[in-house]
Amino acid sequence: MTNLNRTIGQLAEDELLARIIPQLPAGRTVIDNGDDAAVLPADDGSVVACTDVMVEDRHFRTAWSTGGDIGWRVAMQNLSDISAMGAAGTQLLIGLVMPPSTTLAWVEDFARGLRQACEAGAFAWGSPVGVAGGDLSGGEKIMVSVTALGSLCGRKPLTRAGARPGDTVAVAGTLGFSAAGLALATAGKIPARLADDWQDLSESGASADQWAQYAWHIYRRPQPPLTAGVSAADVGASAAMDISDGLVRDLGRLARASGVSIELTPPCDLPGLVSIAESLAPSEGKALANSWWHSGGEDHALLATFHSGTELPDGFTAIGRVLQDCEGGALTGIDPEAARGWDHFGQG
Amino acid sequence: MTNLNRTIGQLAEDELLARIIPQLPAGRTVIDNGDDAAVLPADDGSVVACTDVMVEDRHFRTAWSTGGDIGWRVAMQNLSDISAMGAAGTQLLIGLVMPPSTTLAWVEDFARGLRQACEAGAFAWGSPVGVAGGDLSGGEKIMVSVTALGSLCGRKPLTRAGARPGDTVAVAGTLGFSAAGLALATAGKIPARLADDWQDLSESGASADQWAQYAWHIYRRPQPPLTAGVSAADVGASAAMDISDGLVRDLGRLARASGVSIELTPPCDLPGLVSIAESLAPSEGKALANSWWHSGGEDHALLATFHSGTELPDGFTAIGRVLQDCEGGALTGIDPEAARGWDHFGQG
After folding, report:
1. What average pLDDT does this structure show over B162-174?
2. Could you say which of A45, A85, A93 has the minimum Cβ distance to residue B35?
3. Is A314 annotated as a binding residue?
4. Count of CB contacts below 8 A, A vs B?
5. Angle (deg, nearest 10), helices A177-186 and A285-295
6. Residue of B nearest to A94 (CA)
7. A269 in a labelled binding site
8. Chain mean pLDDT for chain B
9. Label partner for A168 (CA 20 to 30 A): which of A140, A176, A309, B16?
10. ipTM of the complex model
11. Which residues does Mg(2+) 3 bind (chains A, B) (predicted)?
């Protein structure tokens, strides 16, 4: 039996790969990743590609996030970028740098998180998501780079640049919960982990403890609405964008790219976020919750704009509109206090 | 005017990107990298993909390699993997982690090295090679991850698994010079940099100093024979593989993947390598040179097998043959002393 407490410094690279590769789905390949490069199908004559890096003590802490959490999160933030183009993810390529003291158990857990993210993608898109290649190296801190590839399946790509006056601005997925989870941890109030059969609480009543657990889960394992990009493309959305740096900042980017101004209509109440915020700052709960919603990053919700009169696809909520006759790039309807956000609460 | 001694810790990410992106070629794109993901053409319905990570003080030292050298090397080692499939490189995606103390001059030089590698690829393949995406992050050490994408342009991919009894084994590109360059530097005998108009010395007579400069150049800026994979595919090569871990180790992998045995015919003399080796170890020059040739990694030469009687494409030299009636996976004709190699000389 293999001792999972062995460190990778005690294993040959081939031994390590033999533990990891069988855990990972292959997805659709012509030639798989045992050769110098993988050959992957690109049936519609194009491929969608993006890349992201996560560095220990900058983007995550091993005290807060398990290997599985980190594998999930780095895969999901890339799959969310693919989704935002109106595409389905097909393959990931992984670069993993680890200190020699990293245990085999951690690496296997990391691979499990990657696999779970691939499975979630496959479920969302109805087509396999695999790991087409990778490279391992030693280093002083954990560093993970992921390149995600995807397919538009013949669809026209969604960009940030297509929003037009009169369009409805809508969002799918959670906003502010990752920032709330991080704020809880930063305050030393780390909630219990959610049970494996946790349910999305965003539309139901829940106790303060449940909301805190939910936010902590979203921080560690963000739940981007992976089907939303394809759904938006299918009803002719005019623009779309993954929200990774906070709603206000990313909405500003979309407005500038499209050359339009946008009026935001914030929600009347944010019961989950307010409940968490009040546990941290009783007298400022509402303001803090508002700030998370406007400026919290890394939930990886999807922002999209739809021609006026389009029925919004499942999962989208209208949060504003593109203004007529306005100078491009401006945002209105935003509480400046709420929009300062994010940086106040650290970046994990 | 921008002060190039400013550090990236003093620059906003947008400012930094504005300095880097204009230096990089875009290649062929449908949607370029200003959006959540790039959309790239894949005209023949498939895409070739691989990834590699380089970590400071593991794969390079900033005292020995400039930013430009590192950008060149990480791009080239990936483009070489693409070439080994019989494909042409089309796009790179870059993850770059840097300490806040990194200067703007270093980053611009890194981008220049990437661009030069893309230009060398474009020249070799007669089609553009671009940078389709990237991500920047802070960290304690420099870490670069590159994913390379490529196109087979309708060709059948070359794998490691196709060598057949009777085939000729051949190699294109340099062998052992990267290890020789590293050995010089490790011994504290760093040669002068080659002039920009340096010429390939591998077939000509040269002085000991020139050979040392050449080896030092190959260590910092390996020169994989990027056209060789396509040329090999075009004459129906049976297998191909990038040599990154040394000839003997990688030849063993090809033999095992193909289920064949291979007899190696080492060259009679290695004038360049012997000249360098004698400057380091006068009495053991020939043995050391032999060891570099057999076991030195990171020249990124191309190994390929050809059906008996095939005229080898330009740049290839025969170095052995696939044996008839032999158990799979064995190598013969190898001096065991020479094959120990590589690890003795450190891995930079």
Report:
1. 96
2. A85
3. no
4. 202
5. 120
6. B51
7. no
8. 91
9. A176
10. 0.93
11. 36, 81, 242
